[in-house]
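Sequence design from tokenized structure. All designs in this work follow the same two-part layout: the structure record, then the generated sequence. An example of the structure record is given first.
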């Protein structure tokens, strides 16, 4: 049983009838020879990636999605649009590895005219195309351009059309599909952005239209080739009142999903409040509530809560972590691929230019993170968790954050250790046993060349090669 009653078979069957199942499973090539790796990152410099960086990415990862604003410096001038940067970088990467799967990152909610040429066009039509609340106000929680109103077919056609245009511009055979960020469900009625009133009917209509949009994109890609994939981002462990049923309702409309916060953020409990100051204060997440930034200021602490200006104490929520194993297993059994994004320790907010916060002796440099990341105290749990779940169709990511220096080693201050992670390159071979839960919390599994034990309650993992 999965917590929160995610198995409404009647609903899932109905949705499956509305939108066909589609592409081949798994969404991407899969091999037991090594851990198949995915990475999502940006390169915020006028030169994009160097030749050496591109070669490393192409030789060490199986799937790559190039983040929003890829190639745009943090300060003007704008050297590339994201579409142009994607085109150039895809050719650069495929030149080193023709089998690399490259995904175009395309967000459903966040419009970025400063980065995308397509969003500049959207901004000119936002008065007609933007989503409005019950009072007719454009809904713009990200302070970029209003969220698109996908209940309008013209808006859905525009969003899908951008992807098809980028694929043709780049070369359809070179693009493996789309990483559709913001695909998960959200209860806009009970958790509206500050200053907005959104009825349940309006919220439900927009969420339904968003799923319809994902299905239309998938159908359009499958007309190009059944090997093209839409990966939704994604599944969630936020409170059920905010993202109902882990956002599993999107499954009938996509080829796979990302689990982006495994062992981090909403999977981490905070027992005392961090001090809040400076520009990161708006990103602070109160320990009693997981909501979006616009709602933080109005969030009231529970009765008896006392702020503490010392460093917070933290721990993983083992029950949430255990639930992920059930949700991921269910998703894979629906023949939907899973990208499992794991982290270096229990990373949390606030977030600044360096990346997330870290509860124990917060590292101040990339070199300090790199040293921690290869220690089995931190690498062991995500790797062993992945291996316990490993089957065709699941792919692993392990990184501190989303910049190129979190993906590629360097001589100065990158968060990736020199020599990368040898454990990922090791040939595990095929499993010789299924996952064996020897207790509620402990999973053991044997492979041809390794044995694995993961203890979800203690948040530890052990991998022994033989």
């Amino acid at each position: 049983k999965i917590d929160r009653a995610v198995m409404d078979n009647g609903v899932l069957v109905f949705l499956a009838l509305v939108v066909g199942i589609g592409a081949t499973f798994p969404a991407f090539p899969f091999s037991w020879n090594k851990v198949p790796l995915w990475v999502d990152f940006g390169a915020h410099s006028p030169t994009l990636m160097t030749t050496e960086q591109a070669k490393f990415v192409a030789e060490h990862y199986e799937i790559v999605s190039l983040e929003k604003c890829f190639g745009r410096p943090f300060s003007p001038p704008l050297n590339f649009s994201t579409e142009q940067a994607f085109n150039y970088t895809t050719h650069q990467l495929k030149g080193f590895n023709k089998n690399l799967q490259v995904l175009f990152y395309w967000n459903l909610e966040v419009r970025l005219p400063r980065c995308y040429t397509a969003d500049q066009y959207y901004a000119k039509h936002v008065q007609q195309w933007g989503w409005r609340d019950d009072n007719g106000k454009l809904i713009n929680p990200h302070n970029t351009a209003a969220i698109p109103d996908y209940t309008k077919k013209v808006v859905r056609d525009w969003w899908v059309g951008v992807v098809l245009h980028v694929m043709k511009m780049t070369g359809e055979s070179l693009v493996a599909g789309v990483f559709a960020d913001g695909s998960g469900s959200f209860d806009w009625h009970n958790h509206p952005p500050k200053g907005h009133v959104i009825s349940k009917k309006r919220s439900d209509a927009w969420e339904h239209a968003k799923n319809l949009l994902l299905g239309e994109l998938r159908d359009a890609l499958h007309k190009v080739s059944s090997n093209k994939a839409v990966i939704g981002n994604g599944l969630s462990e936020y409170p059920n009142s905010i993202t109902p049923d882990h956002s599993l309702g999107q499954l009938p409309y996509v080829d796979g999903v990302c689990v982006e916060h495994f062992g981090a953020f909403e999977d981490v409990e905070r027992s005392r409040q961090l001090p809040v100051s400076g520009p990161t204060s708006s990103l602070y997440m109160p320990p009693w509530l997981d909501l979006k930034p616009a709602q933080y200021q109005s969030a009231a602490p529970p009765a008896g809560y006392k702020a503490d200006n010392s460093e917070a104490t933290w721990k993983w929520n083992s029950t949430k972590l255990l639930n992920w194993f059930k949700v991921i297993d269910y998703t894979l059994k629906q023949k939907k691929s899973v990208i499992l994004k794991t982290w270096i320790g229990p990373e949390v907010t606030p977030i600044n230019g360096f990346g997330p916060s870290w509860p124990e002796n917060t590292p101040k440099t990339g070199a300090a993170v790199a040293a921690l990341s290869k220690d089995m105290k931190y690498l062991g749990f995500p790797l062993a968790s992945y291996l316990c779940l490993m089957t065709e169709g699941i792919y692993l990511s392990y990184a501190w954050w989303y910049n190129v220096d979190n993906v590629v080693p360097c001589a100065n201050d990158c968060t990736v250790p020199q020599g990368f992670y040898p454990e990922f390159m090791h040939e595990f071979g095929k499993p010789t046993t299924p996952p064996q839960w020897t207790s509620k919390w402990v999973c053991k599994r044997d492979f041809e060349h390794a044995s694995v034990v993961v203890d979800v309650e203690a948040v530890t993992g052990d991998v022994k090669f033989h």
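The longest strand covers residues 101-107. We note this feature because it recurs in several other targets discussed in the main text.
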